[in-house]
Specification:
By secondary structure, this protein is an all-alpha fold. It has six helices and no strands. The chain has helices at about 5, 15-35, 60-85, 85-95, 100-110, 115-130. α2 crosses α3 (about 60-85) and α4 (about 85-95) packs across α6 (about 115-130). It is globular. The relative contact order is 0.18.
């Protein structure tokens, strides 16, 4: 029988929030850009019987795999935001998807600075719980 602490170790909330913010600010926009590139621009592999050295991997296959992975990250991010509660969903969407300023989102929400920071951090923790591609949690050792 498993103990709760074995299945769900204690999360370091501060580090997890920082990791989620980094993912949403830097990794997600990169994945969005990468996944929206026109896949038809990829060249077909050239087959020749002439000997040549150097190439060990299949660059076209690698590029397609990267783009498919980027699409999967974007889709899972949307799903993770959708799994959060209404306040968290609104904050994550406004700050990280629409890229509104924190001040504008805070004023629109009607919360004071401290309360808004609390809800934003809570939203990041909920996102980490719901995101399934990669574990964004940092655990207390």
């Amino acid at each position: 029988m498993y103990k709760m602490d074995e299945l769900f170790p204690q999360v370091d909330e501060k580090k997890t929030v920082a990791k989620v913010k980094h993912f949403l600010k830097h990794s997600l926009p990169k994945m969005q850009r990468y996944s929206h590139k026109d896949i038809s621009s990829i060249k077909s592999p050239t087959i020749t019987d002439m000997p040549r050295g150097g190439s060990v991997g299949n660059q076209q296959e690698e590029t397609i795999t990267q783009r498919l992975y980027a699409c999967q990250v974007v889709e899972c991010s949307k799903e993770a935001i959708a799994c959060c509660d209404a306040i968290s969903r609104q904050i994550l969407w406004a700050v990280y998807v629409k890229e509104n300023t924190i001040t504008a989102v805070q004023l629109e929400s009607g919360y004071g600075e401290t309360r808004f920071r609390y809800y934003k951090n809570r939203a990041c923790l909920q996102f980490a719980d719901a995101f399934m591609i990669e574990d964004l949690h940092e655990f207390i050792k």
